[in-house]
Write a structure and sequence with these properties.
Distance between the termini: 74 Å
Strand content: 15-25%
Helix content: 25-40%
Length: 517
């Protein structure tokens, strides 16, 4: 017997006994430190001198496992660990379901102990709870076919029992009275999640259990519709689909829209990109005889930017595409919609006329349009402006940077502001006297929340003086804005011709001017 000295009384009320038999019945409850702490907290909140406890009937005649489990819980919640948990922050948590009767385990009748796991890996007791009203979210690395896979799942209480929702796709519904459950495999949300769920079903069919370590589902049966061969064939077909999607830049983590016609979309991807039935795109055959950038709308929701080279389509937002475009000497950018017999040429940059000067393949493309591509990848866009793929001296360097500053204003995504800063700084390193690059750099610095130094302000006064001598009023306007002289800037703007006003209103400097106090 383990006793705990406490100043307040924890009473056991209304203990029911079975009056239909002369056999003596035993009831129990584990009063481990976490539970005692929880009970005392409830007692304080109630303002009463006692609180009732629910007891569980002890059905197993063997006391040894009962005592061993009790001792294990006490050891895991010793005073040393309990006090340490109040001082350390946990980076992960582990949930233990404490069952005294293993052969009659019921998740929603057991006690839950939550342990925090700090960076040092020592498990520290955090709290105790009952599974009434339970909703637990968890990530766990599981091992299937000698491969590790990160799986997310939720445990949610239901009226009849509980359900486990895996990857927001596979639902396992359990009836606690019948001790049985069924699978429900939902619609594809992402290829990665769906394939994880197929593999979990396959694992269960083969072993009659799941590979989870912290979520033990036992003491019942699950009904699985379908056979092992069917599941394995479906896994194989989705692996082929995933490979084709990877080729064209659709990530396995991409979330498909709820209204997407997935069977039609998946069939189109397989037929066009795996089976190379390019006639389904309604692109004239002669257009596929040279390297092309082609925009394809596979559906209302899936739009792709691809490169056609060497007889196949590749993801435009990929390192392989960057290398191919670097080698190309004759490139046309065309736009094509799936199911339409129209091919519309799109102008590439003027710098392409001089093939000694490399220019990013994205330099002439508007970022606001690029982000609409399902396969858009900012890191590839950024990489395309590296020296390997882009000559920083190109005029499009400054033009592109303005587009990214403008997009930052609309999204507040710092990545685009940092890219714009990098482009202007590298351009200025090549052309130290370029005043447009300086103005852009100072503008970005202010947008980042910095103040201009005295030297930088003096530099702006010098730029303004030279602009006044050359009658470059738009530069004068920009300098007054950066110096936060809104009144002076307003006066200069009023003197500008209508065409110059309209032009400058399209630039990021004008929006900064509007926001000045």
């Amino acid at each position: 017997m383990v006793t705990t000295k406490i100043k307040k009384k924890v009473a056991v009320k209304d203990l029911e006994t079975d009056t239909t038999t002369v056999e003596q019945l035993a009831y129990y409850r584990i009063l481990a430190p976490l539970e005692v702490r929880s009970l005392l907290s409830r007692l304080d909140l109630s303002g009463k001198k006692s609180i009732p406890l629910d007891l569980t009937q002890f059905k197993n005649r063997d006391l040894e496992p009962f005592c061993n489990t009790f001792i294990e819980e006490i050891d895991k919640q010793s005073k040393h660990f309990t006090e340490a948990s109040e001082k350390k922050e946990a980076s992960n948590y582990k949930v233990d379901f404490v069952s005294m009767q293993k052969e009659d385990f019921n998740l929603f009748e057991e006690i839950i102990h939550v342990y925090g796991i700090p960076d040092d890996g020592i498990r520290l007791p955090v709290e105790e709870a009952e599974s009434d009203g339970l909703k637990i979210e968890k990530n766990e690395v599981v091992y299937m076919n000698n491969e590790s896979t990160l799986v997310t799942y939720q445990i949610i209480e239901t009226e009849k029992g509980f359900k486990v929702v895996i990857e927001d796709t596979l639902t396992l519904d359990f009836d606690k009275r019948k001790k049985s459950g069924v699978f429900h495999l939902g619609k594809v949300k992402s290829l990665g999640s769906y394939m994880k769920c197929l593999r979990l079903i396959n694992y269960y069919i083969q072993r009659n259990k799941f590979p989870f370590q912290t979520l033990k589902l036992s003491g019942g049966t699950l009904n699985v519709k379908g056979h092992l061969q069917q599941i394995e064939e479906e896994i194989e077909s989705y692996e082929e689909l995933r490979d084709s999607c990877t080729q064209i830049g659709i990530s396995e983590n991409y979330i498909f829209g709820n209204k997407e016609d997935l069977p039609s979309l998946f069939n189109a991807i397989i037929n066009i990109f795996k089976n190379k039935q390019y006639n389904l795109l309604n692109i004239r055959h002669e257009k596929l005889k040279r390297t092309e950038i082609i925009n394809i709308e596979l559906s209302q929701y899936v739009k792709l930017a691809l490169v056609y080279a060497n007889g196949c389509f590749l993801n435009l937002y990929s390192e392989e595409a960057l290398k191919i475009m670097d080698r190309s000497s004759s490139i046309t950018d065309v736009a094509s919609n799936h199911g339409q017999d129209t091919v519309e040429p799109v102008m590439l940059s003027d710098n392409r006329e001089n093939y000694d000067q490399k220019v990013s393949i994205f330099a002439s493309r508007k970022i606001e349009e690029m982000v609409k591509d399902t396969n858009f990848d900012f890191d590839i866009v950024k990489l395309s402006f590296a020296d390997e793929h882009h000559d920083i001296q190109a005029d499009l360097t400054i033009t592109s940077s303005l587009d990214y500053i403008d997009f930052y204003d609309k999204t507040l995504d710092e990545n685009y502001l940092e890219l714009a800063l990098d482009l202007n700084q590298r351009y200025l390193a090549k052309y130290p006297k370029d005043e447009i690059a300086k103005v852009n750099i100072y503008l970005i610095k202010l947008k980042q929340g910095h103040e201009l130094s005295e030297d930088e302000q003096n530099d702006l006064y010098n730029i303004q003086a030279r602009a006044e001598m050359n009658n470059e009023q738009t530069i004068c306007f920009a300098c007054e804005v950066l110096l936060k002289n809104k009144t002076k800037a307003k006066r200069i703007f009023a003197t500008l011709p209508s065409e110059e006003k309209e032009e400058i209103m399209e630039f990021p400097i004008y929006r900064f001017y509007q926001n000045l106090e």
